[in-house]
Amino acid sequence: MSTVAPLYEKGRLYTMDLSQLQPDLNQPRKSLDPAALEELAASIAQHGVLEPILFRLNENGGLIIVAGERRVQAARQANLTTIPGILVDGNHAEIARKKQTRSMLTAYNKYKEQAKKQQEGRKKPKATTSSPEDVLDWLEKTGKKLSAIDTTNYTGEQKAALAEALAGLQATIESLLHSQAPAENQPV
Questions:
Q1: 107 phi and psi, to 5 degrees?
Q2: Would you say 117 and 50 are in contact if contact means Cβ atoms under 8 Å apart?
Q3: 64-112 pLDDT, tens digit each
Q4: Disulfide engineering: 41 pairs with which of 57, 77, 86, 175, CB 3.0-4.6 Å?
């Protein structure tokens, strides 16, 4: 009995069988945060997968995840059997890097918008109860992610946006350190 692999067209949306999807060994993200994955799985169980994954075909016709590994893992945790996906072609590493850059810029723009609202007094700053250990853990993970970014193929505009985002993060860290430090020669 011979089986014929389905044909896929670039840019078209498909309902993908999760069991047929394979992770990309060149994926920039090497580990997934279990707590964040569990949170995503709960959201997917409640709302479904809202953003299709991107996939490509390997030389053997296998389906390789280009972008959306977290969604695939969370969908499996939510006991789904299918996920929406779009076929892409081209340099899969470049596609994944561009997606990572867009995600960082989206997060930074959201941060800037929240900071602007706080400065304008529309919204009170949200107090956090993060322990010093939580903050140090977050900083370590963030440092590892930042050091893994390869900007070789970034455009000048993307590099400038990344530099602006990093400068904003640095200013926030400096502000945090200076606003919370006890005054010298004062009882603590």
A1: -65, -40
A2: no
A3: 888 888 999 999 999 999 999 988 876 666 666 666 776 777 777 778 8
A4: 77
